[in-house]
Design goal:
It is built from eleven helices and two strands. The chain is mainly alpha-helical.
Length: 258
């Protein structure tokens, strides 16, 4: 996958997100809050809601588009993913879009958001996602919160999480975080190997030897071959068995050479 093609696809998704945020800001705060926006100044009317991403975008051979097609994500589900991914693509994305409409300093609990220790830009929370999805009424807010349930695809495949807020604070004020594996997958087309640490106390071992150099009894070799097959084809197998537990679990036991 050419990096340029993926960059163009991701930029299109960001542009779509920016237009949707602009539309929601105008719809919620009123046109008098907009500054230097030609659509509102020229016509004096609220612009129509931006259309969703085109079929052509979904047909591109890029990780995010193909993921959406494979799991048949809705436009709202795609939007939540792009919201979580946006700061990793453009650090000042939310600041640019929001301050264009709300230049005055101040906190806007309707929009949510937080700022990190190293990253000083606006980072999304659950409230940010609900605002952009247009969930301004209580019923809509309750309906949209299912994206963050444990039964949803996002949680089952560990794509993104809603970090638990401090005790007593609303759940939707939690940080909206995409896991690093999927950030790597959607931006680079591959998942980076985890680094050895206390959280991942294992590391990859490289060898110049081949499978034919491995000396095991035939039954064990057959079991190892099953593992190899899964490693080669697990993406397709997981699509076929989407409702089953993901991954392959194996227990190695016995003395060396057995």
């Amino acid at each position: 996958m050419p990096i340029s093609s993926n960059a163009q696809s991701l930029q299109t998704a960001l542009d779509y997100l920016a237009k949707t945020i602009q539309w929601q800001l105008i719809a919620y705060f009123g046109m008098e809050s907009a500054t230097n926006q030609p659509d509102t100044e020229a016509t004096g009317t609220t612009p129509s809601q931006p259309p969703g991403l085109s079929d052509e975008w979904f047909s591109t051979d890029t990780p995010l588009a193909q993921f959406c097609c494979t799991y048949q994500l809705t436009q709202d589900e795609l939007m939540v993913m792009v919201i979580a991914l946006a700061p990793h693509l453009q650090p000042d994305f939310f600041d640019q879009v929001i301050t264009a409409f709300l230049p005055q300093a101040g906190d806007y609990p309707q929009i949510g958001g937080w700022r990190g220790k190293s990253h000083r830009g606006f980072l999304p929370t659950g409230d940010t996602a609900l605002f952009i999805l247009g969930a301004h009424q209580l019923g809509d807010r309750l309906q949209s919160q299912h994206f963050f349930d444990e039964e949803h695809l996002f949680a089952r495949k560990q794509i993104l999480t809603l970090d638990a807020p401090a005790d007593g604070e609303p759940r939707m004020s939690g940080k909206l975080i995409m896991t690093q594996d999927y950030i790597d997958w959607f931006t680079q087309g591959r998942m980076s190997r985890p680094r050895f640490s206390l959280n991942f106390p294992a590391e990859a071992i490289a060898t110049d030897m081949e499978w034919s150099d491995l000396v095991l009894n035939p039954k064990t070799i057959q079991q190892v071959k099953v593992l190899e097959t899964w490693l080669l084809h697990h993406h397709r197998l997981e699509q076929w068995m989407a409702k089953r537990k993901q991954g392959y679990r194996a227990l190695f036991h016995g003395p060396p050479g057995r």
